[in-house]
Amino acid sequence: MSRKLKWGILGCASIAKRAVIPGLKQSQLNEVTAIASRDIDKSQATAEELAIPKAYGSYEEILLDPDIDAVYIPLPNHLHKEWTIRAAEAGKHILCEKPLALTEAEAAEMAEAAAKSGVHLSEAFMYRYHPRYDIIKDLLNSGAIGEIRAIHSSFTFNNSGSATNVRFRKDWGGGSIYDIGCYPINAARILLGTEPEAVTVQAFFSPAHDNVDMMASGLIEFGGNVALTFDCGMWAAGRNPLEIIGTEGIIEVPHAYSIPEGGSSFFLTQNGERKEMPVPAVNAYSEQGDHFANVVLNNSPARYGTDDAIYNMRVIDACLLSAHERIRVTL
Fold first, then answer.
1. Which of 126, 67, 108, 124 is nearest to 91 (CA)?
2. What is the pLDDT of residue 264?
3. Which among 17, 181, 251, 326 is least surrounded, fewest beta carbons within 10 Å?
4. How much is the pLDDT for 280?
5. Does pLDDT of 263 surpass 90?
6. pLDDT of 73 higher than 90
7. Phi and psi dihedrals of 58, rounded to 5?
């Protein structure tokens, strides 16, 4: 049996317990060795629930564990920089939840720390490792829908009644643009293969939620007269579609980012005929984990380097500035 990458999990966040840890366990090249919380009872309960061998009462203990190769960081956004840099200095490879940081400058500092320590750092956008995105990019490159004229995408859900949710802490990097607006931004950049030129965003900042943006709608301008229009929100009915409009056709992805089991197919419209495009049913979290492990264990090239995360934060910075100042921001 080939060696597997041994993971430590920093925190018992919901995304770790319900998605990332099960995905790593189902993957071929990874195993989850330890989990840490500042509450040892919490980490022990989670370790028992998910059959994780070790439980620690501090994040530092994971970084000191010589058996751990890599760490996954699902901590609140304002802690991403600190624990990424500390993990890098401890020689651990790092998968950090999106958004990678609070600003472009923070992301660049984190990338520099990883490079200095010779460790792999990746932002946890699991959706992009699902095979349907390769299929979609192949269709776009083949001219299946002609020239791209526009992209539209949304990501919304409603958890506005969750008073203690970390997403509603402004000083912790709360708000819908950080939490889910980052997905349409990332997807448009990947699909178009270029960086935006300007952004304009309108947002609803809720006094009842520490004045974070609970809903935002934006226009992101790319070269070639193409734009992404998007909306994101944490106080709206849930959906996460992606639509790519071309001169000769349309690609529609009903569940673009949060992928339900068996719901990974998408639709292609050509010459007025709309057909469903089947896609292999895989766990995108497992695919993300195996890609990460291949980079670390087998020196495979990373599909998305730290530059991608830095550039995505640059756009997020501009979106937040535009929303707060009600201005168009050039990049």
1. 67
2. 81
3. 326
4. 87
5. no
6. yes
7. -155, 155
Q: For residues 217-232, give the mean pLDDT.
A: 98
Confidence label for 51 from pLDDT (cuts 50, 70 and 90): very high
Kindly report the number of other CB atoms within 10 A of residue 141's CB atom: 9
Mean residue pLDDT across the chain: 96
Integer-rounded Cα Rg, in Å, for the chain is 20
Question: Could you tell me the pLDDT band of residue 259, with boundaries at 50, 70 and 90?
Answer: confident
Residue 98: active-site member:
yes
Q: Which phi and psi (to 5°) does residue 173 adopt?
A: 80, 35
Amino acid at 92: K
User: From the candidates 4, 98, 116, 137, which is the catalytic residue?
Assistant: 98
SS (H, E, C) the chain: CCCCEEEEEECCCHHHHHHHHHHHHHCCCEEEEEEECCCHHHHHHHHHHHCCCEEECCHHHHHHCCCCCEEEECCCHHHHHHHHHHHHHCCCEEEEECCCCCCHHHHHHHHHHHHHHCCCEEEECHHHHCHHHHHHHHHHHCCCCCCEEEEEEEEEEECCCCCCCHHHCHHHCCCHHHHHHHHHHHHHHHHHCCCCCEEEEEEEEEHHHCCEEEEEEEEEEECCCEEEEEEEECEEEEEECEEEEECCEEEEECECCCCCCCCCCEEEEECCEEEEECCCCCCHHHHHHHHHHHHHHHCCCCCCCHHHHHHHHHHHHHHHHHHHHCCCEEC
Q: Which residue has the tokens 């994971």?
A: 62
- Asked if pLDDT for residue 261 goes beyond 90, the answer is no
